[in-house]
């Protein structure tokens, strides 16, 4: 099953509310995915600065590590976001590589990514989602099918800077596509099918494709059932497989575009009564981008 | 007592923001056939699943907002109106009565339904009328791909356009489409519109409050070549 929630704000006045709204949407989607949850949120970024979201076992001394590296650090439960001038990225990554207990979950100028096992409401609370702000965010509640219930198997998946993807469904040719992508130098951390879809999009973007082109190509190369919601530094896209096995409802107002696996997830959004509601057509790429 | 007073007295308002969905369904399913509580209004549905399922009393139920999955499922005699959109499987397995969706319906509307009338004012998503077994369905907008898949009996009227693979593996149901059909499914073909077809279609359009004329529709049905195993196809298995 699995549940997906996504919220892309058009009106900057709602930005302080983003985390609270997404948190509510994920809570409603517990019925569709009670075993783990995660979200990516695109907040304020400082120009010329890099953010890395790190994960380690609970109790890891992030502040000591950050002080040693001379980087800013904000802890969120067992995750932490460090930020530093982009020019230092190689050096910081080399230093982090000496700590095998740390996983780099995501990188980017704006994106922060958190995920863990447990009920979605608990996961959101652990990371303090309700008080986070930003321009857009996507989240996922997982009911595991293709791989085990682990933090690594929770969504979103990110394999490129400021890029992430969540998935409802299952891919049947993920092993084949993974092998092809590995030959192209894309790295994978799990046996999960969704990570392959994320890697596929990252590969396409690396090759100079735009996100909508990359999604079109996914229709050709990825076999299986899927509703994907993807996030980039300034955009938000949606794609359903041509058979439309997995549900999707969208709501658009002057203030936002919202995605929910079911209408229930959208019911608490402001102004939902007068929103334009529609189901994305199967096999059609939908994409919204913020003006730079 | 005037008719108006009687309606007011017998109307039951059920607010799902205050009361439990299970209690609503238990109350509806417990109604006697000759109950005087014939008017029900359900407030704040907020996309909840399985609203007003399994009702067997001839009462009128209005759902004031968007409904989730399987709304009005197994309906047997009630007249159920959804003043909003309906999720997956609205009126699935309906036996009799009517279900009227004022907005759009998600996939598998009227799935496996044996009887009654399902009216969708907006669009229906994929697989509308899948495996329908006698229900009448009128979609005023468009219907998605694989509508009437393996339909066995009944009538599906689409006033707008139909998506890919209409009537795939059709047994015996009448399909009427006014607009375009993206593609026909296996064993579905254009049929001549008989006088009987025209009468059925005209009656359904009238019941649904449509102003379309039967002569503007094309009738589709089963070519009946998939009914029996054909030895020439043995190599395909």
Gist of the model:
The complex is a heterodimer of chains A (292) and B (237). By secondary structure, chain A is α+β, with helices and mostly antiparallel strands.
Cα end-to-end separation of chain A: 36 Å
SSE class of chain A: alpha+beta
Strand order of the largest sheet of chain A: 7-2-8-1-14-13-15
In the CATH hierarchy, the third-tier topology of chain B is known as Pectate Lyase C-like
Number of helices of chain A: 7
Proportion of strand residues of chain B: 15-25%
Count of discrete alpha- or pi-helical segments spanning 4 or more residues of chain B? 3
Compute the CA-based radius of gyration of chain A.
Answer: 18 Å
* Radius of gyration of chain B, in angstroms, nearest whole number: 19 Å
Describe this structure in words.
- The complex is a heterodimer of chains A (292) and B (237).
- Chain A has 292 residues and is of the alpha+beta class.
- Chain A contains seven helices and 16 strands.
- Chain A has two domains: 3-44 and 116-289, Glutamine Phosphoribosylpyrophosphate, subunit 1, domain 1, CATH 3.60.20.10; 46-109, YebC, transcriptional regulation domain (Alpha-Beta Plaits), CATH 3.30.70.
- In chain A, the strands form three sheets. A seven-stranded antiparallel sheet of chain A has the order 7-2-8-1-14-13-15, with helices on one face. A five-stranded antiparallel sheet of chain A has the order 9-10-11-12-16.
- Chain B has a single domain (3-236), classed as 3 Solenoid (Pectate Lyase C-like).
- Chain B has helices at 3-10, 21-29, 195-207; strands at residues 11-15, 39-43, 60-64, 76-82, 96-101, 117-120, 133-139, 153-158, 174-177, 188-191, 218-222.
- Chain B is built from three helices and eleven strands.
- In chain B, strands 1-2-3-4-5-6-7-8-9-11-10 form an eleven-stranded mixed sheet.
- The A-B interface holds A 243-244, 247, 249, 262-264, 266-267, 277-279, 282 and B 46-48, 66, 68-69, 85, 87-88, 103-104, 106-107, 125-126, 144-145.
């Amino acid at each position: 099953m699995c549940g997906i929630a996504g919220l892309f704000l058009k009106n900057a006045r709602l930005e302080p509310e983003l985390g609270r709204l997404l948190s509510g949407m994920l809570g409603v989607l517990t019925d569709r995915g009670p075993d783990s949850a995660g979200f990516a949120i695109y907040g304020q970024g400082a120009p010329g600065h890099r953010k890395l979201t790190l994960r380690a076992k609970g109790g890891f001394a992030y502040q000591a590590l950050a002080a040693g590296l001379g980087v800013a650090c904000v802890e969120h439960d067992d995750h932490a976001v460090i930020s530093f001038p982009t020019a230092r990225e190689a050096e910081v990554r080399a230093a982090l590589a000496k700590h095998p207990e740390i996983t780099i979950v995501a990188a980017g100028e704006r994106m922060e990514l958190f995920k863990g096992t447990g009920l979605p409401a608990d996961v959101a609370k652990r990371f303090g989602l309700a008080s986070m702000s930003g321009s857009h965010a996507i989240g996922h509640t997982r009911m595991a099918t293709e791989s085990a219930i682990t933090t690594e198997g929770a969504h979103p998946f990110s394999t490129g800077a400021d890029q992430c993807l969540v998935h409802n469904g299952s891919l049947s040719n993920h092993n084949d596509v993974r092998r092809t992508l590995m030959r192209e130098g894309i790295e994978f951390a799990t046996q999960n099918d969704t990570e392959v879809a994320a890697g596929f999009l990252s590969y396409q973007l690396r090759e100079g494709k735009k996100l909508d082109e990359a999604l079109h190509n996914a229709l050709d190369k990825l076999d299986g059932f899927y509703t994907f919601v993807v996030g980039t530094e300034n955009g938000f896209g949606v794609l359903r497989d041509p058979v439309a096995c997995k549900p999707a409802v969208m709501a658009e107002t002057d203030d936002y575009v919202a995605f929910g696996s079911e209408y229930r997830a959208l019911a608490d959004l402001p102004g939902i009564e007068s929103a334009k509601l529609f189901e994305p057509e199967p096999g059609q790429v939908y994409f919204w981008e913020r003006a730079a | 007592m005037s008719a108006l007073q009687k309606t007011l007295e017998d109307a039951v308002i059920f607010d799902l923001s205050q009361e439990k969905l299970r209690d609503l369904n238990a109350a509806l399913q417990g109604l006697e056939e000759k109950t005087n509580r014939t008017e029900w209004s359900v407030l704040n549905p907020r996309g909840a699943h399985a609203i007003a399922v399994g009702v067997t009393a001839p009462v009128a139920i209005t759902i004031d907002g968007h409904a989730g999955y399987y709304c009005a499922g197994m309906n047997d005699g009630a007249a159920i109106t959804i003043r909003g959109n309906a999720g997956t499987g609205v009126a699935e397995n309906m036996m009799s009565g009517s279900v009227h969706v004022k907005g759009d319906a998600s996939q598998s509307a009227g799935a496996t339904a044996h009887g009654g009338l399902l009216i969708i004012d907006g669009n229906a998503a994929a697989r509308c009328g899948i495996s329908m077994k006698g229900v009448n369905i009128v979609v005023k907008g468009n219907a998605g791909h694989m509508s009437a898949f393996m339909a066995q009996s009944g009538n599906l009227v689409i006033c707008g356009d139909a998506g890919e693979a209409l009537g795939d593996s059709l047994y015996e149901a009448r399909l009427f489409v006014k607009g375009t059909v993206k593609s026909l499914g296996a064993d579905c073909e254009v049929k001549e519109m008989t006088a009987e077809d025209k009468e059925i279609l005209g009656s359904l359009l009238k019941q649904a409050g449509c102003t379309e004329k039967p002569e503007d529709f094309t009738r589709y049905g089963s070519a009946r070549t998939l009914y029996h195993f054909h030895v020439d196809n043995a190599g395909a298995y």
